[in-house]
């Protein structure tokens, strides 16, 4: 089940999966208050999270949204929960009038996003302290 959640609810998975168990306070994003947060639940356990906020990607035009902090509990990875979360977000963004979604994808996650029909829109680049990434996007129809 996908639900809207608070920014605070995303922090444990962000810490564990994306930030090598940094303290939760160091896993807060500057724009957490500007968007919405989704969580995928299995029974009462939060297993996947993502944060979405309005931000245009210069080459893609206006009405863009950015995804940040996509994280899935490793014990639940590969079981479709992250894909369900992204699909729910795309439907919500479509209803909100967004034109596209873009994000920095870890190189290791590019295959996951390609299965969701997302396109690579940049060369590979390094995020200091985190690793190699690509910018990716998907048009919202």
In words, what does this structure look like?
This is Putative GNAT family N-acyltransferase. InterPro entries: Acyl_CoA_acyltransferase, GNAT_dom. Residues 1-141 form the N-acetyltransferase domain. The protein is of the alpha+beta class. The chain has a single domain, classed as 3-Layer(aba) Sandwich (Aminopeptidase), CATH 3.40.630.30. The protein is 23% helix and 36% strand. Strands 1, 2, 3, 4, 5, 6, 7 and 8 form an 8-stranded mixed β-sheet that branches. It is globular and about 35 Å long.
CATH superfamily heading: Gcn5-related N-acetyltransferase (GNAT)
Which residues sit in consecutive blocks of at least 5 with pLDDT less than 50?
A: none
What is the highest CATH level, the class?
Answer: Alpha Beta
Q: Calculate Rg over CA atoms.
A: 14 Å
Sheet/helix structural class = alpha+beta
Helix content: 10-25%
Helix segment tally: 3
Annotation, overall tally of beta strands = 8
Assembly of the depicted chains = single chain
- Largest sheet composition: 8 strands, mixed
Overall mean confidence score, pLDDT: 96
List keywords for this structure.
alpha+beta, 8-stranded mixed beta sheet, 3 helices, 8 strands
Topology:
Blueprint (H helix, E strand, L loop, with lengths): L1 E4 L1 H12 L17 E7 L2 E10 L9 E9 L8 H15 L4 E7 L3 H6 L3 E2 L4 E3 L3 E9 L2
Parallel strand pairs: 4-5
Antiparallel strand pairs: 1-2, 2-3, 3-4, 5-8, 6-8, 7-8
InterPro entries: Acyl_CoA_acyltransferase, GNAT_dom
GO molecular function, one term: acyltransferase activity, transferring groups other than amino-acyl groups
Keywords: Acyltransferase, Transferase
